[in-house]
User: What shape does this take?
Amino acid sequence: MASTENGATEDSPNFFKRTDYDEDYWTNYLAARPDYSPPFYSSIYSYHQSHSGHFSTAHDIATGPGQVAYELSTHFDHVTASDVNTTHLAIAAHRLTPLLSSQKLKLLHSSAEDIASHHPASSLDMITAAECLPLIDAPKALSEFSTALKPNGTLAIWFYGRPIFAESEYQATCQPLLNSILDRSFAPLIKNNGPQAQKGWKRGMDRMASFLDDIDLSPTEWKCVERWKWN
Assistant: This one.
């Protein structure tokens, strides 16, 4: 169960929340997670250019420590980085001070489901949403994204899930073992939460298991949709 700023407990679907300012945690967080490589970002920019996208304004959703916002700042004139958690924004502010001082980057306290209220309609060239779609109300957020994006704007969503053993000789033995280790590691966290937080965990785990295929990107609202999977 997440703790609030005053130390009380909070039963909320927003279960991924750091209320303590811990620089070491975020340093280890970034070191342990897979890197977003230059070729990966290049594929996003190439897609954007191929659909006549511009490089004026971008918005990074659920920015956390701000590593995606930093990358966007190397290509876009103005970048907004938002997060629903104020402590995450404090970490991003510390790590991205030069960009804030230059006014190229703006930090915004907002949920993904409310960003259209912070931008004029059809004003963003790109929205990035790294790792956060399993954690949010996707249909509501996608509606907000659609409102804020320019025609020919780009929405780039990505995440990584549980490791999968693709080799048949390891799949039958190693995959169940790994799944058991992960289940045992996370079970106490889930069981000690309230019903809303457990609901958030269930939504997140189901979405990760589907590799985001449960998210409907309606052709009446989204065009030229591409879904890529790597293992």
In short: The beta strands are 2-3, 9-10, 57-61, 78-83, 105-109, 124-130, 149-158. The first helix runs from residue 23 to 32. Confidence is low (pLDDT under 50) at residues 1-8. Residues 1 and 193 are 4 Å apart (CA to CA).
